[in-house]
Amino acid sequence: MNVLPRGVRHIAACLDRDEQIALVEEIRAVVEAAPLYRPEMPGTGKPFSVRMTNCGRLGWVSDRSGYRYQPLHPATGTPWPPIPERLLALWRSVAAYPHPPEACLVNHYDAQARLGLHQDRDEDDLAAPVVSVSLGDACRFRVGETTRGGRTTSLKLVSGDVLVLGGEGRLAYHGVDRIYPGTSALLRKSGRINLTLRRVTKPEPDAS
Ligand code: MD6
Ligand code: FE
Q1: What's the first-to-final CA gap in the chain, in angstroms?
Q2: Which of 15, 75, 117, 178 could cross-link with 160 by S-S, CB 3.0 to 4.6 Å?
């Protein structure tokens, strides 16, 4: 039995099948307005194997000049579509944080795609957790400590699972080792979608 690092919470089967179906439809509409594109590694420009887009006021992007949040889609130049209400409701129920998320990164994995170990640290407000939702094919997810090279443990994330990185786990290293193709029939084609909800800016001190 794997013990997850402190602050890392795996909520298995958080979304039932009907909720997953409804969410996939909402994400389809997001992707129609803001097409998936392939980000590039800062510096080298090496393409990611994962394709990405965003919804929310801000979106996370990566290109040769670095990682950042920005209000416009890098290819279309238009604002990201809004975060679906269903995801805002999920955030309210699991984030234990009194302000709404501002960004939702949409990651799309085909059977070969991977995501290397990384920390999510491009946000100004590290008091807020990152909340992620898995849809479609299962994956092997790896999560470790807050230092690179620390101990890691892996878990299988399946469609409908939610993972929360908060508190002491907010800066835990994590990544996706592999996809298990054909393990879900949720999406029309095989593949995996992961949605990560983030608060980016620090709220005004007196606002709630
Ligand atoms: C993924 N997830 O599951 C990638 N980041 O495809 C992440 O990078 C992630 O699941 C922060 C918090 C939760 C996550
Ligand atoms: Fe991440």
Answers
A1: 39
A2: 15
C-alpha distances (whole Å) from 94 to each of 156, 161, 199 are 20, 12, 14
Which residues form the pocket of ligand 1, taking CB atoms under 6 Å from any ligand atom?
A: 107, 115, 120, 130, 132, 141, 163, 165, 174, 176, 194, 196
The structure tokens 């994330």 sit at 157
The predicted structure's pLDDT at residue 106: 99
**List of the chain residues with pLDDT < 70:** 1, 207-208
- CB distance 61 to 74 below 8 Å: yes
Does this model's pTM top 0.85? My answer is: yes
Split into its structural domains, the chain has a count of: 1
Tell me the CATH number at 139. 2.60.120.590
Rounded Cα distance, 25 and 19, in Å: 10
Candidates 114, 86, 115, 74; CA nearest to 197 is 86
Q: Residue 140 Cα, ligand 1 centroid: separation in angstroms?
A: 11
pLDDT tens profile 58-93: 999 999 999 999 999 999 999 999 999 999 999 999
| CA dist., res. 52 & res. 68, Å (int) | 14
Enter the tokens of residue 206.
Answer: 């007196």
